[in-house]
Amino acid sequence: MRGDPPPVVAYRAERRVRLPALRAGWLTQTFVHWPYRPEAVQALLPDELAVDEYDGAAWVGFTPFVMADVRPPGVPAALPGLPTFAETNLRTYVRHRDGRDGLWFLSVEVAFPPMVAARAIGAPYHPGALDVSTDGDTVSYSGTRGNGDASYRLLVRRGDPIEPTEREVWLTSRWRAYTRRLGMLWETPVEHEPWPLAHATVAVLEETLTAAAGLGEAPLDGPVAHFSEGVRDVRIGLPMPCVPSHGRRRGRRRGADARGRSG
Fold first, then answer.
1. CATH 2.40.400.10 applies to domain 27-241
2. What mean pLDDT value characterizes the chain?
3. How far, in Å, CA of 261 to CA of 263, rounded?
4. For residue 27, which phi and psi values (nearest 5 degrees)?
5. H or E stretch including 38?
């Protein structure tokens, strides 16, 4: 409900992904977030999902990073030749009608064409040419979609490490992604160690991903940015169709202890 304090999400994964479909590291990641009118973002969501608001706004995240050492379960990360490539997500934060929070991807840019197979469950993957580079404290990201209809350029300067505030946990710590395909909503769980976050300053930001995703209006305020060296033990579970459950506990409200919980 508008005006209510938002539920707080867990700083750690709510439950273990004991049988991952994929393991990887998410490295050199920058989070850039803008607040939007909830109505503008809700128009892009399926009926089963509602915008998850913070301080009365919907938030859209632009998150470029390096997907490292991608492998099936049982394969060690040290094995030579594992795929490592750039990826960039445009995402927003949602709640299922049963109260569980998660991500909804507006687009996913990827420099590794086999990942486009995730379209089978509705994930909006787009192959393209992407680049991530670092020069001291400066990190540069760029990408162009393969069909040329969207691109971005981001340059950030990373700062000192921080102890995440409630809002920073809310913006960065989500443990499931929702997709829609074949008339069904799908849920993909994820587990990893807590994000080590640092301050970040946006020096250059040019992008057409938001417009390509259907966000035609301007955000309510300027970007909020954070940097992370990344998490190395990411466990991505098997996508499963969402089954309605009336007995699930709804998320805790703001002010609850969101730190240190694990499923």
1. yes
2. 90
3. 7
4. -120, 160
5. helix 38-42
